[in-house]
Amino acid sequence: GISVYIKNEIPFKVKSSHNETFQKIAIELLLNDEWVKFVAFYRPPQQNNIRNFLYELENELDENIPTMIVGDMNIDPYKLVKDSRDYASILESFNAKLTNTNITRPASKSVIDHVISKSYNLIEEISTIVNQKSDHNMISVLINKSKPNAICHTITRKEINYDVARKKFEIDAL
């Protein structure tokens, strides 16, 4: 499951928190007089729910506010499969960036837990922490609260540019 903890003094509003095929919590926080969206996902590893998940990801990225999306997506962007290409294409089409590149599930040597940002300066620091009590490593994110308002501009996706996706995810071939 997923949970989100918010300090009592930070104003927030819950935007959505339920889905049939995966878990999601979407909230908006008021940071320095500006609303910033945070979304947490858990997508189970079954492949039968990828279309719904990608549709929901697009919906969350489609607002013109600073946005951070985190969670166990169970998609490895470095694997050369259709789901990873579709995922990379959606991130590219909304000018969103996968900010963590270290292995998050050591047993499979994969990066299936993600921190995605659609704001140029929302994340100040990110690190991966080995977790002895789980089969996943933890991701620590330090939020830059001072100026989250420099958002990335949305572009409409007409076709997939695999060259850009390869560069974005630093892989050899798609």
What would you say this structure looks like, in words?
The chain is α+β, with helices and mostly antiparallel strands and 174 residues long. 18% of the residues lie in helices and 28% in strands. The protein contains 3 helices and 8 strands; from the N terminus they run βββαβαββββα. A 6-stranded mixed beta sheet has the order 1-2-3-4-6-5, with no helix packed on it. A hairpin with a 6-residue loop joins β1 (12-16) and β2. The longest helix is centred in the N-terminal third of the chain and has 12 residues, at 50-61. The radius of gyration is 16 Å and the shape is globular. The termini are far apart. Mean pLDDT is 80; it is low at 148-158.
Question: Mind sketching the topology for me?
Answer:
Layout: E1 12-16, E2 23-31, E3 34-42, H1 50-61, E4 67-72, H2 82-93, E5 97-98, E6 113-117, E7 123-129, E8 138-143, H3 162-169
Parallel strand pairs: 3-4
Antiparallel strand pairs: 1-2, 2-3, 4-6, 5-6, 7-8
Helix pairs in contact: 1-2, 2-3
Task: Give a brief rundown of this model.
By secondary structure, the protein is α+β, with helices and mostly antiparallel strands.
Q: What attributes does this structure have?
A:
28% strand; two-stranded antiparallel sheet; 3 helices; alpha+beta; 174 residues; single chain
Number of strands: 8
Largest sheet, spatial ordering of strands: 1-2-3-4-6-5
- The mean pLDDT is 80
Number of helices: 3
Distance between the termini: 32 Å
The backbone outline, from C-alpha atoms, is globular
Strand content: 25-35%
Please write the string of helix (H) and strand (E) elements.
Answer: EEEHEHEEEEH
**Sheet with the most strands, sense and barrel status:** 6 strands, mixed
Range of helix content: 10-25%
Question: Cα-atom Rg, whole angstroms?
Answer: 16 Å
Structural class: alpha+beta
Unreliable segments (pLDDT under 50, ≥5 consecutive)?
Answer: 148-158
